[in-house]
What we know:
It contains 8 helices and 13 strands. It is an alpha/beta fold.
Amino acid sequence: MATFAIGDLQGCLRSLKALLGHIRYKDGVDRLWFTGDLVNRGPDSLETLRFLRTLTDPVVVLGNHDLHLLGVACGARRVGNDDTLAAILSAPDRAELLDWLRKQPLLYHDTRHDVAMVHAGLPAAWDIHEARARASELEDALRGPDLCGTLGSLYGALPDLWSPALTGPDRLRFIANALTRIRYCDAGGRLDMGDKGPLGTQTPGLVPWFEVPNRLSQGTRILFGHWSSLGRRTFGNVICLDSGCLWGGTLTALRLEDSRFFSIPCDSRGA
């Protein structure tokens, strides 16, 4: 049995199937983890969701594009010019797919492998146990009766610094930004929602979230996606698995048992 963690799919189903063939994945024997952003911008978002639901016990964490889909579906978000969500929204199994999606976690921590997986990152003020607790708060809200209200309140850059005193929409917005959207922070751990480029292009004073001094999750191995301009890279015990499949890069899997990477080239737009 092997466990493979796979970077952002964004509807690139053909590339996923090619990667599974490359790693000789056996459903029901091996296990798959996914770093989120399962859908959007790529060509096969609907079929990607349907395929993932056929897998045996996959581990999925939600990304910003997954939350965007849920928001569009309930009317809390507008469809963007580059969105490729129409097939999902008009599918006869739409309700089942969206219900499955909203029940997925925002952070997964496997104590056996001593590794955590999140879509974007963690704020410096959280150790892995607090991160799991804060993720559970937003998960409960997404699974609750006011899904649309929750999603409608998640967008915005503030608050940008964690405080246990945060409440209501401000608290959930910070959690969502931290887990599904951050790339850079300042040295004091304040989230920056503006800079999105590769390392070295950021505004002076900003650092990648995983390089904030005294980050409390430093002792945990963390897998993440979201940052395609980083590519497949390892920063100590922090590993980016988004290697830009959607943009003609590669789709990457990491085998947790021996830390070996596997990648296959993706056609432009992830076909």
